[in-house]
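sorry for the late reply, my laptop died twice this morning and i had to redo everyting from scratch. anyway the thing you sent over, i finally got around to it. pasting the sequence first so we're on the same page, its 111 residues, then the predicted structure underneath. double check i copied it right bc i was rushing
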Amino acid sequence: MLLHIDFNNPVFPREQVLDITTMDLVDFYMAAPEADQANLFFMLLSTLYALEEMGEKEKAAHISFLAAYYLFVVATPPGSQGLARHYMGTALRLFPKEEYRQWMALIEAGN
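ok and here's the structure:
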């Protein structure tokens, strides 16, 4: 899925949320200007909060997982492990899934 930053609508379409993959995040990061690399995280957060307000727990969990992955694997900003742990914990709280548990173990091991 081709990701792009939209300041007029900073929320990914909910019908496409589950189609966003970790490779989409990597592809975006590799091609995007530095400012948009950071802005993608804020689009993920905007989408997460919107989905939580709508009660879309599975979709919100997927976005929270993607946020954790983006922080821990792709962008690795200062504090990435603690931030990723928070968002992976949110994913697990919203929609417990074995994949999220496995990623939490990797995050706990550190980067």
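The mean pLDDT is 97.
thats about all i looked at so far, will dig more tmrw
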